[in-house]
Amino acid sequence: MLQSRGKAFADIISRFDSTFAEEVIYSTYNSNHINRYFSEDCQIIFQDSGLNIEKYQITLPREPSPEIQAALESRYPGHKQFSNNGIYAILQKPETGLVTFLFVMPTLGKWINLESCTYPSVGKETV
User: Fold this and answer.
1) pTM of this structure
2) DSSP structural state of residue 3
3) Is the dihedral of CA 18, 23, 29, 30 positive or negative?
4) Would residue 96 count as lying in a domain?
5) Cα–Cα distance for residue pair 119/127, rounded to 1 Å
6) CA-to-CA distance for 12 and 106, rounded, in angstroms?
7) pLDDT digit string (tens) for 95-117?
């Protein structure tokens, strides 16, 4: 997130062959399979979805060093959450009781729907 395309390519090619380096650069900078959302963007999407957020949890956290955190905040103004590698969320559709469990892996660009179920109107059961 801090290196330019050219710098990243130079670093990779110094340790691996060109085929691998080109694939990594393509996947990182060009592929539409990479999620370009920040954690804060996911929070906004969930908040604006019209669904009740039953649970929102950062997963697989890895705190950047203070120097890297400062560099990331400088490069990406308005964003401060750089420690997570995924988001676990439980969202509920208010009218139906339908609950959706999501696990978001920002680097994979996937919104993985782990499970959906409808709770009985009498009360919630543990899933």
Assistant:
1) 0.64
2) S
3) positive
4) yes
5) 9
6) 22
7) 777 776 666 655 444 444 444 44
